[in-house]
Amino acid sequence: MNKRSIGAALFLLLITATFAVTFASPAENLLTVEGLQRACADLNAAVQDRWALWAALFFAMCIVATSVSFPMGPVIGISAGALFGFWPGLLLAWGGAAAGSTVAFLASKHLFRDWVEAKLGPRFQSIEQAFEKQGAVYLLTLRFNPFVPYWLVNLSMGLTHMRLATYVPLTMIGLMPAFVIYAHAGTQLATLQSLSSIMSPAVIAALLVLSFFPILAKLYQDRREARARG
After folding, report:
1. Domain tally for the chain?
2. Which of 15, 35, 157, 187 has a CA 20 to 30 Å removed from the CA of 131?
3. Torsions phi, psi of 201, nearest 5?
4. Structural domain of residue 65, as residue ranges?
């Protein structure tokens, strides 16, 4: 077994262990509003006393959690808003999630891409050709869509030839709307009734409309270029 195979196995083990620890420990309580309210209330005094230290720790936790595909973006964003306020919390959660997403993207690219390409063979080449032409559009569309897990986007995009210089800024743009919603909800945590209430039908509809914007913009650009050539 080569070093890349060992690295891939360890990365998958780390993801599995993260899921197991989360859902088989008291950390599962953070999946409820009541659990989040208690946790943030307990930490609030400590955060106020040593704001910079806790902000640094929270930012590092965001990076680690996102890099191992921790599926709790809403919890991270809400906690950030509740503990640090809207703007500082937004920057901490959004920046940490973007950095962690980049780590997951790079891990997927270096650990799994060759194996997937070998398994898919010629089919992988057709996927690659599509991503060379429309990769940025696909990434933004998936990022804005509220039903597509951000961790799945991180890992799947790592399997393509997308450049880091393209992935990072588009990821930051794509993550921003959801984390704005989460951080704002965190500032209202005391009156929040349930986590599901954050994503109201109106908010979901707005994000879905936003997710179609990159596609429509690309179609408009292609049509203009076609007319210019004609």
Report:
1. 1
2. 15
3. -55, -35
4. 3-229
